[in-house]
Amino acid sequence: MAFFNRLIQSPRSAFKTALAISISLHIGLLILYLPPKSKTPNKIEQTVVVIKLEQPEPPQQKTTPVPTVRTVRTLTNTVPATQAAPSAPTAQEWAFASQYTLKNSKGYRHSWGKQVRSMMGTAVEGPDQGEVRFRIEIAPNGQLVSIDTLWSTSRVAEKLARDAVSKMPALPPTPNGKPLVFERTISFSPFASDDTPLYRDDCIPDPPQFINPFAWDGKSAQTVAKTKPPEKLDPQALAECLKQLPQDSIEGEAASNQRQIEQWRSSKPNLQK
């Protein structure tokens, strides 16, 4: 006790004494509460598992099978369509044509076109097929005055037609004894239909040519033109006209029906019927 009193006699010595006691207590507490030294832990064997993710296979697309060589050969070996040249007009047909005056010598014009086509040969399906339209003038004695090409869809068809015209035999005189001017289309195609005409309606006058009643040149007095009424034949003239009409052939009837079908048929049939 005397020793303790001696240590705290002065404030400085008391502070040192308290500090030393505090440090000693803390060191003692640390020694008491420190965990004991542990042994080195055993090594744990680790197994690494590698998972390999495979990408899904893409969906198989349906592909159109490529045609075999055999199929291609079958398509390329298709026989093209053909149409033989018609027979030339007979002497009887030319005799009728040289006397028929109705509808701008209708029989003469048909026989002329048939004669040209008969000398052009067989039409074969392909790039050489086509049509050509001419404007022809024939003198009263039957000789060709001029031939002009209005349009053509095949150079081969035009050349064959012109060659045939240049080699045509002598033609009979025109029916009315006057120059005959007309237009004619020559079809050089394997799909051409027969153009044999019908004559039963040739005595019916042609309807008047349409004239726009409101047409105006901007200078003269403006008037409304009246359409001329259709011409009417007196009974005597009609009787004389009917004497010229021949009996229509079966070929002419069939050709007329075919022309009507091609003109008025529809590409979309009525499926409701």
TrEMBL record:
The chain crosses the membrane at residues 14-34. Residues 255-273 have a biased composition (Polar residues). Residues 248-273 are annotated as: Disordered. Keywords: Membrane, Transmembrane, Transmembrane helix. This is TonB family protein.
